[in-house]
Write a structure and sequence with these properties.
Length: 173
């Protein structure tokens, strides 16, 4: 196969991956960074990185999981860089001009963040990946480079803590 055909094959594979996963990857990123623009930039940059580096997706066992791992890593990088610059959400609520879809997404994000704030990050991340991103425990294990049993136990412990938190709220009502 000549170089031009190989390059076209790469672009075809990437195009199919983008079409099939762009929305999932955006949601995945959004629920980690809390910003539509940043999430879109992260996902777009991941796709650009694949093109720039000429990564051979055809040779990968699971290109989809590779994409999720890249997006996850970029989200973590963003969170590390931006932790100093974060402004409390209630300070910017009045400044946001959102449409109904963005408002619903923002409200869903706020509810989930509130529930997951008080549990360890590792447990919260597994819960997000399973419930929000609809990833299986096997897929999560592959993305996070953990054993499936570790992922399952983090999920179970995290859910139990969230459940206890919800039960505490109900008792106070």
């Amino acid at each position: 196969m000549n170089f031009r055909n190989k390059k076209q094959q790469q672009l075809d594979i990437l195009e199919k991956l983008v079409e099939a996963n762009q929305d999932y990857l955006f949601r995945f990123a959004y629920f980690r960074v809390g910003s539509r623009e940043v999430a879109e930039d992260i996902v777009q940059n991941v796709f650009l990185k694949l093109i720039e580096n000429c990564i051979d997706l055809a040779l990968m066992k699971s290109p989809r999981m590779y994409l999720f791992r890249m997006v996850s890593n970029r989200c973590i990088d963003y969170q590390r860089r931006e932790v100093i610059h974060q402004v409390p959400l209630d300070e910017v609520k009045g400044l946001m001009d959102e449409n109904e879809e963005e408002t619903a997404l923002r409200q869903e994000y706020e509810r989930i963040v509130a529930l997951l704030d008080d549990i360890p990050f590792e447990q919260a991340e597994v819960i997000r990946m399973n419930t929000i991103d609809n990833l299986s425990f096997v897929e999560i294990a592959e993305i996070l480079d953990l054993s499936v049993s570790t992922v399952k136990s983090r999920f179970m412990y995290g859910v139990n803590k969230v459940r206890a938190k919800l039960n505490g709220f109900k008792k106070e009502d």
